[in-house]
Amino acid sequence: MDHALHRAFRTTVRLLWLTGELLLALVSFAALALRHAGIPDRELRACWLQRVCRRLLRVFSIGLRISGPVPSTGMLVCNHLSYLDIVLIGATTPCIFVSKSEVKRWPLFGWIASLAGTLFVHRNKHSDLARITREMSRVLDAGSLLVLFPEGTTSDGSEVLPFKSSLFEPATRQPQGLSVGFIAYALNDGSVPDEVCYWRDMTLVPHLINLLGKRGLEARLCFTDIQQHSPDRKLIARQLHSEIVRLKEAFSV
User: Fold this and answer.
1) Domain membership of residue 147 as a residue range
2) What CA–CA distance (Å, rounded) separates 198 from 156?
3) So what's the pLDDT on residue 173?
4) Pairing of strands 178-187, 217-226
5) ∠ at Cα 42 (23, 112), nearest 5°?
6) What is the pLDDT of residue 192?
7) CATH no. for residue 94?
8) Beta bridge partners of 222
């Protein structure tokens, strides 16, 4: 009973803390917009998101370890396990994310993502590909870091799902470089696949509340640069997939 009470108290405190941080983020964005007499450019929004994510790391009490060269420009490709992935990467380096359009409708989190300049793609509309490719190219041409999760969905982390190559077209003709990141989690008092990873038919609010009650959550971010790549988007997808699998295998040793 003692353990259950402590966990309930921890969950309640963190939930209130999280709500406060998200509301504070909205207020700070409004202040930023007033200071710049309108919606700030993407670089400023990426820096705003980094500040927000760093505060959220403390809410979730995540111990984050980073290895490898942290990218600051070009395209960063990562495996995808949870909504926490955005918090980890966003706290590490200013960036712009590419996300499925459904995230835009998430309460509070969707607002934060929209304000941060996230590029939303309609996965089931092939006609949307040309638009999102143009927007991605503009972000890359501006020298910002663009983050892509090409598995197209989250998983339990047991394997790296095949990459969808359709969004790699901007990478074939931009000089800013490519990098990959591997994300992994460890949890002292629970199951990473069932309680940290957000996949299958899980529902956001119950998953989030359960996660806020957990202790000993650790995360690892491993980066590496891609020095040479093919001019073909399908070959790039396979190359980057292989590199992330290599990082996963090295991490598992």
Assistant:
1) 2-252
2) 8
3) 74
4) antiparallel
5) 20
6) 96
7) 3.40.1130
8) 67, 182
Summarised one tens digit per residue, pLDDT across range 117-129 is 999 998 777 778 8
- Alpha carbon 156 to its chain centroid, in Å, reads 16
* 30: its two tokens: 């409004």
Distance CA 76, CA 244 (A): 11
Beta pairing, strands 217-226 & 96-100: unpaired
Residue 159, CA distances (Å) to 37, 82, 98, 237 in order: 46, 14, 22, 16
Cβ atoms of 115 and 29 within 8 Å: the answer is yes
For the chain, the domain total comes to 1
CA separation for the pair 165, 200 (Å, rounded): 22
Mean pLDDT of the chain: 92
Euclidean distance between CA atoms 209 and 228, whole angstroms: 43
In the chain, beta strands by DSSP E: 62-67, 74-78, 96-100, 119-121, 145-148, 178-187, 217-226
Per-residue pLDDT, 64: 97
Decide if pLDDT at 175 tops 90.
Answer: no
Helices (H) and strands (E) counted in the chain, each on its own, are: 7, 7
Residue predicted with more confidence, 109 or 219: 219
Residue 144, both tokens: 């910002």
Give yes or no for residue 174 having a pLDDT over 90: no
Helix, strand, coil share (%) of the chain residues, nearest 5: 50, 15, 30
46: its two tokens: 């990426």
> Would you tell me the crossing angle of helices 2-35 and 42-59 to the nearest 10 degrees?
160
